[in-house]
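Minutes, structural biology subgroup

Action item carried over from last meeting: produce the structure token record for TRAP transporter small permease protein (Citreimonas salinaria). EB confirmed the sequence was re-checked against the source entry. Recorded below for completeness.
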Amino acid sequence: MLRVHLVVVRLARAFAAIGGTVLSVLVLITCLSIVGRALNGALASDLAMSIAPGLAQGLIDTGIGAIRGDFELVEAGMAFCIFAFLPFCQVTAGHASVDVFTDALPMRAKRGLIFLTETLFAVVLVAIAVQLSSALERSMQSGQTTMLLQFPVWWSYAASLVGAVAAAAAGVYMALLRLYEAVTGHAVVSAAGAPA
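Output recorded by EB:
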């Protein structure tokens, strides 16, 4: 059982690494766009146009400015990132929890509560994946595209659905794992998601 858990954690970590890479690219796009917008504003200012109009206009003409469609890229990419991080958060029990009321409970009751929590997460994650799948289908049928870059909106739904399905699978896996722990009384992983 522990080997299966380690494989699931590795897969979830791979999803998180991909999400982190995409997030880093989105941060870079945002920073470059902000710097480009600021430079464009400075070059188009009265001061720059009066001191060196040819140079200022020449630099503006090279395309210095905000990245076209930067907000569309960030919007689509962030949705994917969130779903890419969810499987790792699920298998490592990285969600916020309040243990004040459960610390005094016996271990059997704690395992039951952990199982119920994981089951609730699994149900919600499966529902999100199903709804996202429906939205993807509707988006593909509508042919809707983004305003500036004109890429199909369904692309971002499809990318997000991959992470949502992985998160749902991780949620179901963790619910089954916690059920096994609750029934047998044998801890496979700690409440924090680390191997026991």
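Discussion: The mean pLDDT is 91.
Next step: EB to file the record with the rest of the batch.
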